[in-house]
Amino acid sequence: MKFYELEREPSPRYTGSLNASHRWGLPGIEPCAVCGLRPEGRTSAQYPCVDLSVLPPEEQEKLLDSWPVPLEEFIRLRELVRPLAPPGAVLKTGAVFGPLQGTGLGYFGQLFMRNPWSLCMRREALERLQDAGVRGLLGCPTQVRFRTRHAPELRDIQLDSHGRFHPDCLPPREPPCPACGADKGYGLPEPYWLDAASLPEHVDIFRLADASTLLIANERLVDAVRRLELDGVVFKELEAR
Description:
The chain is an alpha/beta fold and 241 residues long.
């Protein structure tokens, strides 16, 4: 099975842009007094289909502000969210929830990436891919206003996190902070290879667990996109070992 990284189509005809954000998000964490790092790490995971409006208003208010909080408060907020999130959700600083809200303008392809870690699709494109048997596509209606007569019906795609980098492409890890357990981690390896044994077989598109800014698809999805002549993204083939 071949795997590919999704990238936005660079053609100038795709002028679409969104000035929008998700309603809720887990806040930052105050840095460790010993190492200066923030415990628990962070993520770019997005859960647009998760509705936190059932939480008390005072708790929702705390999930509207990304300002760092003490670790104990972060853990408390995370555990409030956990029962409402899907199994296996990555509940770290930066995780966002609820539909996209804001405004949009320009021309959108059938698939649209407003940044490297976000994927939207026109409603009809999502339905065609689902009808073609593509697995792992869960779309949430957006709450985006367009100043045009023919506004696209965009669906924000919620993806599960799976897969690892192959160990051979990673630099040596520094020991974690003895006080908080945080480590400095590493930047995106260049080039990078995927660990074939860690890649999922039950979905055709996912967010890479080792780097939440990367969206990965297998050849089943890529073949379906090309067969259906859907536009807006390009695919870069990856090496899996």
